Amino acid sequence: xxxxxxxxxxxxxxxxxxxxxxxxxxxxxxxxxxxxxxxxxxxxxxxxxxxxxxxxxxxxxxxxxxxxxx
Length: 70
Prior knowledge:
The chain is α+β, with helices and mostly antiparallel strands. It has 3 helices and 2 strands; from the N terminus they run αααββ.
């Protein structure tokens, strides 16, 4: 089936053979990013809503976040 140069330019993936090295690097990079996001969401510290305050003595304390609506 004949094709035009415009069709070949628009559908570049149809005429190029797959590059396995590039695909493997892309899959590893994507998997690493998804794994890191999942790790950050499951990490225990991220579920605790706390912040650090500085007392008048100069000491730092960790307090839970509170809402004015509570």
